[in-house]
């Protein structure tokens, strides 16, 4: 497509609707075949030993510079993948299905390149822990889980529309401490993939062709943004616990845009975990509302990719809190629905490795 047609949105192909034309631009189908084995991160999981095939079918879009963040990250690919594996046909662990979006960051832009791919979404495991029916599954306490993937890829483009890759990495399933046990499963995998672009590729738009404010202009403006949000999660910390209990996280934070793709700021959290009430009732421990409410202060960073961004928070609890854990971290995916309304999915973690709860929330920019 020539520059004039691209700029005006005219369809030289004839019959495609504007939506289909936009959808098909740089769209690829990617088939990934790999072989994996369990990486045991707890001693009691040593009994799970198996090697097994993994199948992934993806639909992905090669970005070409319509937003400035795409040029900053060397024109990454974004897509969604369907995952299946028999997981070694181990009866207590079952089979795994997953559907998750991902993003692939190429380190260089050449016929042969090297890059890293991150994916995060939902997974379904056909077997989970049950103290009567399946007591030997000490990895997963629920069928519905988070599915996470990270791979390093070496890709060679054979033509404008066809490329192949060798890749290796890690596949992870866990429920974010929604239901114990939650040790999770880690699978090391390596394989080969082939991708075919469904239509003629679109030329990349160079960064200098996109009008964006400079970093100095952002800093001179100095426009702090105030956000207020609420996240909700549920968890069951004991298999004998009949019902799930609720967790709420009220957050307020201020962010300042430092560069075109980075924001930095600070804020406060107030967490209410009803599991603390149940724990105190069972142990006969006296408690007060002040002890149950868990305040904290944090610093936050945000990596901007259009309306979507990744957030990372490092904070510390303070006040008369009943637990000894003070430090917390939060990793999240944030989506701006409008200028003043956002949604987010976050994982609260303590001591950098202990999952606390998976939260779903929304908020407002004031």
Could you please describe the fold and organization of this structure?
By secondary structure, the chain is mainly beta. The chain folds into two domains: 22-197, Beta Barrel (Porin); 215-365, Porin. 10% of the residues lie in helices and 52% in strands. A hairpin with a 4-residue loop joins strand 6 and strand 7. Residues 1-13 have low confidence and may be disordered.
Task: Describe the SSE topology.
Elements: H1 3-8, H2 18-24, E1 27-38, E2 51-62, H3 68-72, E3 77-85, E4 96-106, E5 112-125, E6 144-157, E7 162-174, E8 185-197, H4 215-221, E9 225-235, E10 245-257, E11 262-273, H5 275-283, H6 289-292, E12 293-305, E13 308-317, E14 327-336, E15 341-350, E16 354-365
Antiparallel strand pairs: 1-2, 1-8, 2-3, 3-4, 4-5, 5-6, 6-7, 7-8, 9-10, 9-16, 10-11, 11-12, 12-13, 13-14, 14-15, 15-16
State the gist of this model.
With 366 residues, this protein is mainly β. 10% of the residues lie in helices and 52% in strands.
Which terms would index this structure?
Porin, disordered N terminus, mainly beta, 8-stranded antiparallel beta barrel, 8-stranded antiparallel β-barrel, 366 residues, single chain, 6 helices
CATH class of the largest domain: Mainly Beta
Radius of gyration equals 23 Å
Give the tally of structural domains. 2
SSE order in H/E notation? HHEEHEEEEEEHEEEHHEEEEE
The helix content, as a percent range, equals 10-25%
CATH arch. level architecture of the largest domain: Beta Barrel
C-alpha termini separation: 42 Å
Judging from the principal axes of the Cα atoms, what is the shape? flat
Question: Number of DSSP strands?
Answer: 16
Q: Strand count, sense and closure of the main sheet?
A: 8 strands, antiparallel, barrel
Low-confidence regions: 1-13
Beta-strand content estimate: over 45%
Number of helices: 6
Helix/strand/pairing category: mainly beta
């Amino acid at each position: 497509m020539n520059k004039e047609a691209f700029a005006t949105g005219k369809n030289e192909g004839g019959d495609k609707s504007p939506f289909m034309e936009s959808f098909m631009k740089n769209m690829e189908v990617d088939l990934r075949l790999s072989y994996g084995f369990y990486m045991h991160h707890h001693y009691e999981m040593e009994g799970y030993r198996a090697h097994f095939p993994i199948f992934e079918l993806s639909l992905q879009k090669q970005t070409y510079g319509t937003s400035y963040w795409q040029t900053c990250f060397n024109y990454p690919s974004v897509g969604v993948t369907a995952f299946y594996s028999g997981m070694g046909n181990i009866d207590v662990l079952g089979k795994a299905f997953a559907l998750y979006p991902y993003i692939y960051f190429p380190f260089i832009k050449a016929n042969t390149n090297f890059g890293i791919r991150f994916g995060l979404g939902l997974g379904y495991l056909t077997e989970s822990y049950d103290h009567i029916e399946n007591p030997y599954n000490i990895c997963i306490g629920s069928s519905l889980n988070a599915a996470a993937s990270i791979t390093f890829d070496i890709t060679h483009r054979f033509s404008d529309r066809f490329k192949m890759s060798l890749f290796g990495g890690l596949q992870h399933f866990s429920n974010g401490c929604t239901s114990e046990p939650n040790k999770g499963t880690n699978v090391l995998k390596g394989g080969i993939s082939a991708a075919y672009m469904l239509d003629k590729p679109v030329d990349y738009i160079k960064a200098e062709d996109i009008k964006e404010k400079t970093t100095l202009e952002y800093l001179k403006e100095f426009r702090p943004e105030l956000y207020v949000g609420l996240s909700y999660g549920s968890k069951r910390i004991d298999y004998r616990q009949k019902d799930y209990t609720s967790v709420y996280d009220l957050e307020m934070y201020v962010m300042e845009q430092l560069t075109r793709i980075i924001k930095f700021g600070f804020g406060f959290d107030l967490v209410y975990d009803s599991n603390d009430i149940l724990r105190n009732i069972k142990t006969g421990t006296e408690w007060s509302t002040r002890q149950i409410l868990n305040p904290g202060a944090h610093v936050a960073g945000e990596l901007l990719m259009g309306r979507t961004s990744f957030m990372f928070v490092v904070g510390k609890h303070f006040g008369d809190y009943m637990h000894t854990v003070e430090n917390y971290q939060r990793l999240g995916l944030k989506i701006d629905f409008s200028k003043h309304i956002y949604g987010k999915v976050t994982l609260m973690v303590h001591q950098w490795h202990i999952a606390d709860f998976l939260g779903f929330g929304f908020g407002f920019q004031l």
